[in-house]
Every structure is written in C-alpha cells, then in structure tokens.
TrEMBL record:
Keywords (A to Z) from UniProt: ATP-binding, Nucleotide-binding, Transport
Keyword Manganese included in the entry's annotation: no
Keyword RNA-binding set for record: no
PANTHER family: BACITRACIN EXPORT ATP-BINDING PROTEIN BCEA, IMPORT ATP-BINDING PROTEIN
Matches recorded under SUPFAM superfamilies: P-loop containing nucleoside triphosphate hydrolases
Name of this chain's protein: ABC transporter ATP-binding protein YxdL
Superkingdom of the organism of origin: Bacteria
Record GO terms (molecular function): ATP binding
InterPro entries per record: AAA+_ATPase (IPR003593), ABC_transporter-like_ATP-bd (IPR003439), ABC_transporter-like_CS (IPR017871), ABC_transpr_LolD-like (IPR015854), MacB-like_ATP-bd (IPR017911), P-loop_NTPase (IPR027417)
Segments forming domain ABC transporter: 20-258
Pfam families found in the cross-reference section: ABC_tran
Length: 268
C-alpha cells in the first residue's frame, strides 16, 4: 500500500507490481450529495502484500473493501484491479474477471451446511467446469497448507469456528485468485482459533504470494499485516508499516488508535 505514484515501486532491484490502484475514490450513499462514506481516497496495494484496514465503526472500511473488490461501484474516482478498470469492462467479462482474480472471506464463513467441506471448497471450480481430478488435487494441496485434511469429508456443522474459517479460506483460494478480501475473518472466533486463522492467512500470503486485504477491528489480527491503513470519517487518517516485529506493531497500532480517538472501538 503506497501513496499515489505513476510507476511501479522497487525494493532493491525487484519491481513491485500494483495489484490495486485507488485514485480519488468517493462513495455517496442515498444519491449524490446524500452521505459521503468515502472521501477522495487514493492508495496503491502491491502484489503480495498483506494489508490491514482499521478504523472506528462507520469510518468506511467495508465500503472501501466493497469498492476495491468490485462488489459495489464508486460514485467518483478511478479504481484499477490487476490493471483493469472494472467500471469500463462489460458485465459478462467483469463476472469472469472477478471469479478469476478475487476471493472473499467473510466473518460468517458462508459455508453450505448440506455439503461436505470438500464439496464446499470445490464449488467455485465445479461451476467453472474444471476437471474433477484437478479440483481434488488442488483441494488436497490447500487443505494441507490450512491444516484441514481430516475435516474434508465432514459437514460444516461438525467443525469448530476456526476450522470453518480455514475451510472458507480454502474455498476462496481454490480458483487461485490474485487477491483475497477478508472482512473481519476472525470476528466470530476465540483468540486461539483467531491466531490459527491468521497464521494460515500469513502462510498462504508467503507460500502462494496471494495478496490479502483484511478489514479488522482487532489490533492483534492487524499485527499480522505488512501494512495497516487507518480510516476515519471516510478518509485515510494514517498508515503503519511492519518491520517484522509483531509485538512492536501491535503497540504502534494501539497508539495510533488512541491518537485517532477510539471512543467507538467496540473490541479493543
Ligand atoms: N448501503 C448503505 N446505504 C446507506 N449508508 C450506508 C450503506 N452502507 C454503509 N453506509 C454508511 O456508510 C458509513 C460507512 O459504513 P461502512 O460499513 O463502510 O463502515 P465500517 O467502517 O465498515 O463500519 P463497521 O466497523 O461498523 O462495520 C456508515 O455511516 C454507514 O452507515
């Protein structure tokens, strides 16, 4: 995540590719001029980053996630995802683009209770007419990384919350998306399950190079990120970069939230 520039960035000699480019994006709900949930937001997210979005309730976190994940359209401004201007591509192509490029993880898991975990994970690729053998081997590989091999033939209601979320992450990854958008992925989990899920997200970020963008209220969850973007009243209020020390970053997050005025922070 970076401030705007016209070219890709470099670390050493390695070019960092922008996967998301948000330029002066605003979002108004209830018709133009009614309520500005996002105000002229600009940011870049680089391929392979694990980025957190924090801010008080109502600050625009989910709205920004919906804009970047193309769930909803911005009122003004420009948004490029993997170099594509979603507002300019036809709806049919946009649906395929989303399917191939983006994966979602939600607080409520959204698994189907009448299908096994394996079938839940396979669903996005089954709908894409991918061969069964390819799907099954991909599921084994991902379930190995996420530690849910033994849960594959169970039904979601037989799993713990953490196992359900790890299954949901597998499903989000099955079509090999470049970006995973996670909206409060640990919001419904106890602290042990939260850590397991966050370790899994970190692991897929490292092993598969998947870019992860995560909205969270939880400073511990955010401390797993490479960078954190803080929203307040629909604008970017601050940014923190990790130097690799999770505990140090956690303290800096708490300081940032204190400076921002955390009166409507429910869970810190
Ligand atoms: N569909 C909508 N119609 C009207 N107003 C909306 C809509 N969605 C969100 N808002 C308003 O926009 C503002 C930002 O909402 P958003 O959900 O993005 O905040 P948030 O930071 O994700 O909050 P929370 O942490 O409580 O989930 C809020 O004031 C909210 O009431």
């Amino acid at each position: 995540m970076e401030t705007r520039s016209n070219s890709n960035s470099y670390i050493g000699d390695v070019a960092m590719r922008k996967i998301i480019e948000v330029s002066n994006v605003s979002k108004e709900y209830g018709g133009t001029g009614a309520f500005r949930a996002l105000k002229d937001v600009s940011l870049d997210i680089m391929e392979g980053e694990f980025v957190g979005i924090m801010g008080p309730s109502g600050s625009g976190k989910t709205t920004l996630l919906h804009m970047m994940s193309t769930i909803d359209a911005a009122t003004s401004g420009k948004l490029l995802v993997d170099g594509h201007d979603i507002a300019r591509i036809k709806e049919k192509e946009a649906a395929r683009f989303r399917r191939d490029t983006i994966g979602f993880v939600f607080q409520a898991f959204n698994l189907l209770d009448n299908m096994t975990v394996r079938d839940n994970i396979a669903l996005p690729l089954s709908l894409n007419n991918v061969k069964a053998a390819v799907i099954l081997s991909k599921i084994e590989e991902l379930a190995g990384i996420l530690g849910i091999i033994e849960q594959l033939d169970k039904y979601p209601y037989e799993l713990s919350g953490g196992q359900k979320q790890r299954a949901a992450i597998c499903r989000a990854l099955i079509a090999s998306p470049k970006v995973i958008f996670a909206d409060e992925p640990t919001g419904a989990l106890d602290s042990k399950s939260s850590s397991e899920v966050l370790e899994c997200l970190k692991s897929i970020n490292h092993k598969l190079g998947t870019t992860i963008i995560m909205v969270t209220h939880d400073a511990t969850a955010a401390s797993y990120c490479d960078r954190i973007l803080f929203l307040k009243d629909g604008s970017i209020h601050g940014r923190l970069d990790s130097d690799g020390n999770k505990m140090e970053l956690f303290k800096r997050i708490l300081n940032m939230l204190a400076v921002m005025g955390g009166s409507n922070y429910e869970r810190l």
